[in-house]
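thought: user wants a sequence for this fold. calling inverse folding tool.
action: design(structure=
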């Protein structure tokens, strides 16, 4: 895992919200536009070290030329794999309402980043991903999440089915999104106060053992000609519906 993020949508929120997490910001020396000026002012106010460098150096640091002229080196790695799910659940135990998202088979880092951004928008308490059969938490995920990766715990676990059983012990109910004979319509479903949503890949959906660990199987009704949603959009639908009924 790399300890850097790049692009204004990833770096700027860090400067505002968590400047202590940034070791150094590298900026394209040839950029002198308003966006860069505002970032430099914020970084100076936060006491963050900024180095003006050539674009070619940024390409090398970020291992891509899609950095928009700004790369931040973090104090710690952006992976959250050292977080314990038990620690997260213990912290959430006293809450009357809680929302967790579990991802099964999301291998595209762009989808993973978009889902994390969506989860942050709807106040999800934690995102859980498997060690295998998942995109890695990397700078691409951080960039697409537009800074949300820094606001929400992303926990990497070895076994999703076992983790779901563990979560149930803390009073959560598990709903998996899948189109199966036993699935009920999302709009006929009443989410519980402590809720876990399991989202699967667009191609294969959630795996059998993971589905068997769910208390409910739920499908999103389709009313048009297209019969599937991008997984990040589907996540937004179920989270928005859940938050509306939890209020």
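)
observation: tool returned 247 residues.
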């Amino acid at each position: 895992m790399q300890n850097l993020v790049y692009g204004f949508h990833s770096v700027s929120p860090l400067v505002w919200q968590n400047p202590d997490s940034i070791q150094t910001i590298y900026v394209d020396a040839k950029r002198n536009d308003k966006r860069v000026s505002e970032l430099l002012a914020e970084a100076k106010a936060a006491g963050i070290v900024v180095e003006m460098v050539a674009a070619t150096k940024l390409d090398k640091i970020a291992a891509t030329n899609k950095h928009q002229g700004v790369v931040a080196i973090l104090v710690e790695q952006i992976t959250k794999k050292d977080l314990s799910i038990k620690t997260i659940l213990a912290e959430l135990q006293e809450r009357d309402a809680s929302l967790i998202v579990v991802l099964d088979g999301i291998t595209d880092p762009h989808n993973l980043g978009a889902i994390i951004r969506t989860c942050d928008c709807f106040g999800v308490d934690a995102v859980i991903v498997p060690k295998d059969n998942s995109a890695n938490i990397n700078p691409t995920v951080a960039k697409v999440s537009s800074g949300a990766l820094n606001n929400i715990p992303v926990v990497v676990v070895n076994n999703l089915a076992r983790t779901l059983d563990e979560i149930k012990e803390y009073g959560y109910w598990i709903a998996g999104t899948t189109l199966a004979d036993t699935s009920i319509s999302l709009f006929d479903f009443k989410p519980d106060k402590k809720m876990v949503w399991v989202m699967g890949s667009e191609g294969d959906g959630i795996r059998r053992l993971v589905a068997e660990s769910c208390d409910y199987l739920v499908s999103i009704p389709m009313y048009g000609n297209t019969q599937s949603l991008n997984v990040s959009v589907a996540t937004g639908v179920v989270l928005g519906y859940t938050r509306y009924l939890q209020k």
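thought: summarizing for user.
answer: Here is the designed sequence. The first strand starts at residue 4 and ends at 6.
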